[in-house]
C-alpha cells in the first residue's frame, strides 16, 4: 500500500522564505501549501477539515492582520485541527511559553536564510507522531467507554432477568406451598397432615429467599433479619394456627448470600416446627429465634421453655427433620449443639458469615 505524502501548511507573509520551506520540505517528502496571512491560513484549515488534506501547520508569529498567537487560538478552536509548529524570528522565550500553552505542538526560531528548515522537518515529524498517538489514545478511550457502556447495559439486563427469574421462582414456590396447605387442610390422617404441613414450611422457606431477592437492591445477598421476620410470619399463619401466638424473633441486621440464607431458613423452619409439636404437650408456649454476630461468626439459637429432655419420643416420627437440619448445617459448615443448662430446649448453631475458602480450611486442618 502506497503511503500518502503528508501536507504541511506554511503560514507566513514572507514569500521568499515560503519558497525556501517549500523546496526544503518537498525534498524531505512533504507537500507544502503556503498561506500569506493568518486569515488565509484559517480558511485553508477550515476547508481542509472537510477535504482532509492538511496534516500539520507551521505558523509564523509576526504577520499583518492576525498575528501568530491570535491565529493559533482560532486554529485550536477548529474541530480536529491539525497540529501546529509555532515559528518565529523572536528570541523572546515568553512567546514560546504562550504558544505551547495555547496548544502548539512545538516551537522553533527561524532565520531568513532557511537554515531552520531541517529543524522544521524534525518538528513536523514529531508533531505528526504526537497527533497520531493522541488519536490512538482517544480511539482507545472511546472504545473503553463504549465497552463500559455495553457492560453496564448487559449488567442491567442481567439484573433485570435475575429479578424476573427470582420473581417467577418465588411465585411458583408459593403456589406449591399453597397447594400443600390446601392438601394438608383436607387430609384426614394426622400423619399425612403433619407431613404436608412440614413440606409446606420447607417450600415457603425457599420461596421467601426468592421473594427477598426480587425486591432487594442487591441480588447477591439477603438481609437475614428481614428474611427471618417474614419466614416466621409465614409460620404463624401456617396450619398450626394459634400455637404460634408466642413465636418471637430477634435478629441483628446481617447480610448473607442467598444459598446460605436458604439453609438457615430451612433449619429455622424445622426446629421451630419441632418445638411446636413437642415442647408443649398441653398447649402453646414461647418459642424464641435469635441471630447474633460475633465478628465473622454467626450464632443462631432456637429456644423453648417446654419439657426439654422429658419429651416422649413420637413413634410416628421418621427423623426426617433431624436429617434435614444435619444436611443444612453441613451446607453451612455449622456446629450444632444443645444447651445442657437450659431447662427446656435450646439448639445453638455457629457458622461463618461467608464460606471459608477451601485452601484455608485445608491448611487449618493440616495444622
TrEMBL record:
All residue ranges annotated as the Histidine kinase domain in the record: 164-355
Coiled-coil intervals, chain numbering: 121-157
Molecular functions (GO terms): ATP binding; protein histidine kinase activity
All copies of domain Response regulatory, residue ranges: 7-125
Keyword Metal-binding: no
GO annotation (BP), single: phosphorelay signal transduction system
Annotated keywords: ATP-binding, Coiled coil, Kinase, Nucleotide-binding, Phosphoprotein, Transferase
Pfam families linked: HATPase_c_2, HisKA_2, Response_reg
Modified residues (4-aspartylphosphate): 60
PROSITE patterns recorded: HIS_KIN, RESPONSE_REGULATORY
Record-annotated membrane-spanning stretches: none
Reaction it catalyzes: ATP + protein L-histidine = ADP + protein N-phospho-L-histidine
Entry EC number(s): 2.7.13.3
PANTHER family assigned: ETHYLENE RESPONSE SENSOR PROTEIN, TWO-COMPONENT SYSTEM SENSOR PROTEIN
Name of the protein in its database record: histidine kinase
Organism: Bradyrhizobium zhengyangense
High-level lineage: Bacteria, Pseudomonadati, Pseudomonadota, Alphaproteobacteria, Hyphomicrobiales
Amino acid at each position: 500500500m502506497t503511503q500518502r505524502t503528508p501536507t504541511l501548511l506554511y503560514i507566513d507573509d514572507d514569500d521568499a522564505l515560503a519558497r525556501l520551506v517549500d523546496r526544503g520540505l518537498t525534498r524531505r517528502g512533504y507537500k507544502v501549501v503556503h498561506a500569506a496571512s493568518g486569515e488565509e491560513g484559517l480558511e485553508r484549515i477550515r476547508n481542509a477539515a472537510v477535504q482532509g488534506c492538511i496534516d500539520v501547520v507551521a505558523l509564523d508569529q509576526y504577520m499583518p492582520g492576525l498575528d501568530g498567537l491570535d491565529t493559533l487560538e482560532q486554529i485550536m478552536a477548529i474541530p480536529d485541527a491539525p497540529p501546529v509548529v509555532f515559528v518565529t524570528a523572536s528570541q523572546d522565550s515568553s512567546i514560546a511559553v504562550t504558544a505551547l500553552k495555547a496548544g502548539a505542538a512545538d516551537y522553533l526560531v527561524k532565520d531568513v536564510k532557511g537554515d531552520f528548515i531541517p529543524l522544521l522537518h524534525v518538528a513536523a515529524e514529531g508533531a505528526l507522531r504526537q497527533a497520531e498517538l493522541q488519536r490512538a489514545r482517544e480511539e482507545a478511550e472511546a472504545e473503553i467507554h463504549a465497552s463500559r457502556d455495553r457492560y453496564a447495559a448487559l449488567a442491567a439486563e442481567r439484573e433485570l432477568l435475575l429479578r424476573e427469574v427470582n420473581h417467577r421462582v418465588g411465585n411458583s414456590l408459593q403456589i406449591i406451598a399453597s397447594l400443600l396447605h390446601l392438601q394438608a387442610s383436607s387430609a384426614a390422617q394426622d400423619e399425612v397432615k403433619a407431613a404436608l404441613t412440614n413440606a409446606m414450611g420447607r417450600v415457603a422457606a425457599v420461596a421467601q429467599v426468592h421473594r427477598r431477592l426480587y425486591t432487594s437492591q442487591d441480588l447477591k445477598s439477603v438481609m437475614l433479619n428481614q428474611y427471618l421476620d417474614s419466614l416466621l410470619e409465614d409460620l404463624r399463619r401456617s396450619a398450626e394456627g394459634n400455637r404460634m401466638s408466642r413465636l418471637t424473633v430477634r435478629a441483628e441486621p446481617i447480610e448473607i448470600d442467598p444459598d446460605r440464607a436458604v439453609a438457615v431458613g430451612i433449619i429455622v423452619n424445622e426446629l421451630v416446627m419441632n418445638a411446636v409439636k413437642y415442647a408443649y404437650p398441653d398447649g402453646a408456649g414461647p418459642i424464641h429465634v435469635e441471630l447474633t454476630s460475633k465478628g465473622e461468626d454467626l450464632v443462631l439459637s432456637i429456644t423453648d421453655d417446654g419439657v426439654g429432655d422429658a419429651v416422649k419420643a413420637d413413634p410416628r416420627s421418621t427423623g426426617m427433620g433431624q436429617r434435614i437440619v444435619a444436611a443444612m448445617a453441613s451446607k453451612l459448615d455449622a456446629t450444632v449443639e444443645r444447651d445442657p443448662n437450659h431447662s427446656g430446649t435450646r439448639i445453638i448453631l455457629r457458622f461463618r458469615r461467608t464460606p471459608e475458602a477451601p485452601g484455608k480450611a485445608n491448611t487449618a486442618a493440616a495444622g
